[in-house]
Amino acid sequence: MTTTISDDRVVKLRIRGLAKRYGKVDALRSTALDVHQGEFLTLLGPSGSGKTTLLSLIAGLADPDAGSITLDGRDIVHLAPQRRGLGMVFQNYALFPHMSVEDNVAFGLRARRVDTASLRGRVDKALAMVRLEGFAHRLPRELSGGQQQRVALARALAYEPDVVLMDEPLGALDRNLRDGMKAEIARIHRELGTTILYVTHDQEEAMVLSDRICLMNQARVEQLGTPEELYFTPRSRFAAEFLGESNLPAARSLPDGRVDIPALGMAFVPGSLHGQGDGIVLIRPESIQVLAPGADLPAGAIGLQGRVVRRVFTGALTRLFVDTGRTVLCVLQPTGSQRAVAAFAPGSAVSLHLQPAHCHFIAQ
Q1: Is domain 285-359 in CATH 2.10.70.10, yes or no?
Q2: Which residues make up the CATH 3.40.50.300 domain(s) of the chain?
Q3: What is the pLDDT of residues 224-242, one digit of tens each?
Q4: CA distance 54 to 31
Q5: Homologous superfamily of 3-237
Q6: In angstroms, what CA-CA distances link 143 with 47, 140, 149, 168?
Q7: Measuring CA to CA, which of 85, 169, 178, 222 is 20 to 30 A from 251?
Q8: Residue-wise over 133-153: b if at least 16 C-beta within 10 A, else e?
Q9: Max Cα distance, the chain (Å)
Q10: What is the mean pLDDT of the chain?
């Protein structure tokens, strides 16, 4: 029987108290996580955070020291990997070099003794899903990296698994191929409604693809939520810094709902708070705007004066580091034009404004 949670979303995969140690090192501390039916959930974190260990335990590639894993309410922790009903996509593709594309995709089906009559149809369907019709008889070495990853994805989808596990599947691709594969994975998820558990260390990848992100740090779950929740209302300094560029001046919450920020010489009511007392206030660089000369402050905005101490041109965006006298703020501006970039040369005086409603307080 399938388990449900209070918001009526069906829980496809449930993890409770899952833990793993290698010698004296905690690879995964006691972890609980629900993955919903049809959800795209990403395990995001730096190297050594526990995300790949968690995926390996779910896949059956390693044995947990404690905890349970249930799929549709059925305990799978003691089942062999091939009996868990899970598809797996690896970073290195794991294709058989001597086999054709067709035979690579069919490999899992044959291992599960799918009858010959339906096997060809399922292979053709999987190749069509990843847009590799006409490639069935090619060898992996005759394909690009992106095409090889599509074959690996087709192999995982061919036997219609309950959940597809993806471990850094785009890590071996260059930027252009990664962007193309992100779009393909998103399309396939949208069309099939397959439940996907995805591992990456790439923040942008996670935010583009995910319904929810499970941010991991030091072998435990740091925060779980939608990409928007983690980006705008992180619960820790680590989450704020890992999910994007950030200004994090020290702050203290006041009884009247304001937060006092000595580095800015001001106190205001932020858009959101996580906890009370001493902490930091999150000001994303893109939420600070450069005020045009002679322009009035927008309603509700707070003004700051400063001087550009460093400018970093990245193409569509220009990153400014502005000394306000008490602190240096990072400001992210749309580039606009070459003339606009020149106007922000180091040493230039600038007027800034920010909206308190775009700031978030984090108690520490």
Answers
A1: no
A2: 3-237
A3: 999 999 999 999 999 999 9
A4: 9
A5: P-loop containing nucleotide triphosphate hydrolases (3.40.50.300)
A6: 29, 5, 10, 20
A7: 222
A8: eebbeeebeebeebbbbbbbb
A9: 76
A10: 91
Q: What is the dihedral of CA 293, 298, 300, 301, to 10 degrees?
A: -30
How far is it, in rounded angstroms, from Cα 285 to Cα 293?
20
pTM: 0.91
Query: In this predicted structure, what is the pLDDT of residue 2?
Result: 38
Q: Which one-letter amino acid corresponds to residue 335? A: T
Report the alpha-carbon distance of residue 112 to residue 67 in Å, rounded.
Answer: 28
What digits encode the pLDDT tens for the residues 25-50? 999 999 999 999 999 999 999 999 99
Q: List b or e across 246-269, with b for residues whose CB sees 16 or more CB atoms inside 10 angstroms.
A: bbebebbbeeeebbebebbeebbe
* Amino acid found at 110: R
The answer for residues whose C-beta is within 8 angstroms of residue 78's C-beta and 6 or more apart is none
Could you tell me whether strands 328-334 and 288-290 are parallel, antiparallel, or unpaired per DSSP bridges? Answer: unpaired
Tokens encoding 222: 């740091």
- Pairwise CA distance, residues 208 & 170, whole Å: 13
Domain with CATH 2.40.50.100 in the chain: 285-359
Encoded tokens for 265: 């010489």
Residue 180: name the closest of 151, 205, 199 by CA: 205
C-alpha span between 310 and 140 (Å, rounded): 47
Contact criterion met (CB below 8 Å) for 38 and 195: yes
The β-bridge partners of 328 are 323
Rounded distance between C-alpha atoms, residue 268 and residue 93, angstroms? 52
pLDDT at 93: 78
pLDDT digit string, tens, across residues 280-312: 999 999 999 998 777 888 888 999 999 999 999
